[in-house]
Amino acid sequence: MILSDKDIIKLINENKLVIEPFNREYLGPSSYDVTLSDEFIIYDDEIYDLSKELKYKKIKIKRSILVCPINYTLNKEKIEYFKEKYNVDYVVKGGILGSTNEYIELPKEITSFYQGRSSLGRVFLTSHQTAGFIDAGFKGKITLEIVAHDKPVILYSGMRIGQLIFFKLNTPAEIGYCEKKGSKYAYQKTVMPSLIHNDFKGF
Description:
This protein has helices spanning 5-13, 76-86, 118-121, and strands spanning 18-20, 32-35, 39-43, 56-60, 64-68, 90-93, 96-105, 110-116, 125-126, 133-134, 139-148, 153-156, 160-168. The protein is mostly beta strands. Helix 2 links the parallel strand 5 and strand 6 (90-93).
């Protein structure tokens, strides 16, 4: 069962569902809009060797970041041109990781899906790839996998980037996500890189 706005408000008022910060204006008929934080991760590795810890750098923007498609021709001169013309803090190419400002806590009977906003889909920008599912009992901020597919796109800190859709399980989970041993992203409060290398321990 998908939760309505009434269901979401009821769970928040009963302290069973946490969305912090919460803005009543971001509540839709059956979803809640979440906003983009000011922190991002860019990977440095030549290839993704998933058995090893990936190298990355974390950046923080004051206002905006320009994301270019992977096949976009980008050099030092172009970067400086974009920064000067569009007053952006960073210019990046390819996929980047971002995060929501919102910290959520799901009870063991509620799961959620993250979905990018349709307005951003209409400019061919995706903010999640295959990782839109949020397990029951999850507590933390949502990491976003951001890719521009057509032209460079300027994103702004604090803008509405996507929405959460909540579902009620038929029965509560026996063990919530953050209670499960080995949950990689429990209680994350900032953008996090892939920790898939942990799966290879003991191989």
